[in-house]
Design goal:
Strand content: over 45%
Structural class: mainly beta
Radius of gyration: 13 Å
Order of helices and strands: EEEEEEEEEEE
Helix content: under 10%
Number of strands: 11
């Protein structure tokens, strides 16, 4: 299973970005998907997750109401829409896929496959 995240860049505070992550080589429609981020000097942290059916989502408190995770199973793609960005959102963002029919979770241990990361920088 391979994951390719993109869409990162430099944006001013208050701006928006959408990160797509394309998954290949697996059974995408049966995998819970997640987004994590890692800021310099900090551990990787959960941002958002979506169940394999798309009917359930989970968010970190720090992004609730600003970020939205969604998936298009026909395109094997999961998205992270980020609005009202803040400088503290600056990090490398990683998409991750759980094993087939795995439960939605905020724990990185549940996710078996990881993308290479895309840099998001929010200027003040």
């Amino acid at each position: 299973v391979q994951l390719q995240a993109s869409g990162g860049g430099l944006v001013q505070a208050g701006g928006s970005l959408r990160l797509p992550c394309v998954v290949s080589g697996g059974t995408f429609s049966r995998n819970a998907m997640g987004w994590f981020r890692q800021a310099p000097g900090k551990e990787r942290a959960f941002v958002a997750g979506i169940g394999w059916s798309g009917s359930s989502t989970l968010y970190a408190d720090s992004v609730k109401g600003r970020f939205t995770i969604s998936r298009d199973n026909a395109k094997n793609t999961v998205y992270l829409q980020m609005n009202s960005l803040k400088p503290e959102d600056t990090a490398v963002y990683y998409c991750a896929a759980g094993k087939t029919y795995s439960s939605l979770s905020s724990s990185p241990a549940v996710y078996a496959y990881w993308g290479q990361g895309t840099q998001v920088t929010v200027s003040s």
